[in-house]
Design goal:
- The chain has 28 helices and no strands.
- Helix 2 packs antiparallel against helix 3 (48-61), helix 12 (206-217) runs antiparallel to helix 13 (221-250) and helix 20 (357-369) runs antiparallel to helix 21 (373-385).
- The chain is mostly helical.
- It is elongated.
- Among the domains are: 8-168, Serine Threonine Protein Phosphatase 5, Tetratricopeptide repeat; 441-511, Alpha Horseshoe (Serine Threonine Protein Phosphatase 5, Tetratricopeptide repeat).
């Protein structure tokens, strides 16, 4: 059974780069080199319908071009159109192809004939491929599949082992090895192979089915039930994807089908597959804003920020007034410390929606990252004017006012935060610090500092309370409190200095 994300249609991928292809391309005399280059680019981007659209006319013009046949046959193979692929690829050997193309064609035809049930032909092609490409995993795998269908289990196992010896991450071979081990009652080996398959491809339902059989055989109902649940979930996912992919084969230009596939992958958290489908959509249907948007969002989620930037840039070209796109791109540029670009985008977002405070928050963050607290304060004042007066906003506003020498205004901001009713130690702490540092309202400072410690008995709150006690000449309480702070943060030099200051005050106090 084929698996999502690595079906037989794309089990084998090209093993040489486009630079080598270009060399082959330019050694072949043809007026259609540029078109062939375009087609090869589409193949590299997995946009097979576009590649077929370019390659089919080329083949009609020049049916003896082994390179055109190679790529066109590969496109049909990847789309599961195996009869067409066979018809296109099988004449290549009579066209004097390069050794590289000939060897790769043997591998593809082995897979194709296997899919068509033509086992003798598949076996013959795989043998030829192994002779010339002994270090490639795929032909060993195809030999193993043929032996398995012929019920020659020992030969099949040997071939699959050879496959994973060439490529230790070739997950399909582990699946088949687990299947053989299960048939031969080698339950422990079967478990090991199926678990390896799951590690390599967590979205494949087949190893879970194998493990159900294994655990039923050894009467471990608990694990059998666990894998039964996982199997049902993944099998449902597989069937939905498979049905949509078959619809796509019939309607390759239907972007809605491709969008549904990408969305379904994403809902099942198969981010790699989802990203790939959205990327293909942007190649085949570059005007599809939804694909660019999702490509950018998921790339942000996977922290591939360069891909996200490219996607959002394309989306802004399609939708110049997309507010969310400006915000997301602004966030990425801020994270990358590309502050000028971030400011331009966030300012554009503010112009697009002057009453949306989210863009102001982003702009203030940029100013703070640049060390411009005065500009950040100006932005926060605008945020408050727009009605966003939550406790976090008021606390940040108070801190910025302190940095800009607006002590009284800072006190107002902190008191506003306290009135919100949220049990947050910070506004109490900052008010206590202001009073203690200015030596004013020390009785109130003590109350605020004690409240801060009650809400959050961290070293900072304790240190502030110790300072308040020191300012009131309550030296024993000050010493006890700062020692509590040091017990929680023994390497803090500021707390040690405060203790020294308190001890010095005790020594200077008249006996």
């Amino acid at each position: 059974m084929e698996r999502i994300g690595s079906t037989s249609a794309n089990l084998f991928s090209l093993t040489f780069g486009l630079c080598l292809i270009a060399n082959l391309l330019f050694s072949e005399v043809t007026p259609d080199k540029h078109q062939l280059e375009i087609a090869i680019s589409y193949v590299g981007q997995e946009s097979y319908p576009l590649a077929i659209g370019v390659l089919s006319p080329l083949l009609r013009k020049n049916p003896s071009s082994f390179l055109v046949r190679y790529y066109l046959g590969d496109c049909y193979r990847r789309q599961r159109l195996y009869h067409k692929a066979s018809e296109i690829l099988s004449p290549i050997f009579t066209l004097n192809p390069t050794e590289l193309i000939s060897n790769q064609t043997h591998v593809m035809l082995a897979e194709i004939y296997l899919q068509l049930g033509q086992l003798d032909l598949a076996f013959e092609q795989a043998k030829s491929a192994i002779k010339n490409l002994p270090n490639l995993a795929e032909p060993h795998y195809y030999i193993g599949k043929v032996y398995l269908l012929w019920r020659q289990l020992d030969h099949a196992r040997t071939a699959f082992i050879q496959s994973i010896q060439q490529n230790s991450t070739f997950s399909d071979a582990y699946q088949e090895l687990g299947h053989i081990a299960l048939i031969q009652n080698q339950t422990q080996k079967a478990i090991e192979y199926f678990r390896k398959m799951i590690d390599l491809d967590p979205f494949d339902h087949r190893p879970h089915f194998g493990l159900i059989k294994v655990y039923q055989k050894i009467d471990n109902r608990e694990l059998a039930n666990q894998h039964q649940k996982q199997f049902k979930t993944l099998k449902k996912y597989f069937d939905q994807i498979y049905d949509l992919q078959m619809m796509l084969v019939d309607e390759p230009a239907n972007v809605q089908i491709r969008l549904k596939i990408a969305e379904l992958h994403y809902r099942n958290q198969n981010l790699t597959a989802s990203l790939n489908d959205y990327r293909i959509i942007t190649v085949e249907h570059p005007g599809t804003g939804e694909a660019w948007d999702q490509l950018g969002r998921i790339s942000m989620q996977t922290e591939d920020f360069e891909t996200a930037i490219s996607a959002f840039d394309h989306l802004i070209q399609l939708c110049p007034e997309s507010l969310e796109t400006h915000l997301r791109l602004g966030w990425i540029y801020t994270k990358q410390q590309r502050f000028e670009e971030a400011k331009q985008l966030l300012q554009k977002a503010i112009r697009l929606s002057p009453s949306l405070t989210l863009a102001y928050h982003g702009l203030a963050e940029v100013h703070l990252a640049e060390g411009n607290s005065d500009l950040a304060l100006s932005v926060y004042e605008q945020i408050v004017k727009l009605g966003d007066c939550g406790p976090d906003i008021m606390i940040t506003l108070g801190q910025l006012r302190i940095e800009n020498g607006q002590t009284n205004e800072a006190l107002v901001a902190f008191q506003t935060a306290i009135k919100s009713g949220r049990n947050d130690s910070r506004p109490y702490l900052y008010i206590a610090q202001i009073y203690a540092e200015t030596g004013t309202y020390l009785v109130n400072a003590e109350k605020f500092a004690q409240k801060a410690v009650k809400l959050n008995p961290s070293p900072l709150e304790l240190s502030t309370l110790a300072l308040v006690y020191l300012r009131q000449d309550k030296l024993n309480l000050a010493e006890d409190t700062i020692r509590q702070a040091l017990s929680k943060s023994p390497d803090n030099l500021d707390y040690q200095k405060r203790l020294d200051e308190i001890l010095q005050a005790q020594n200077n106090k008249p006996k």
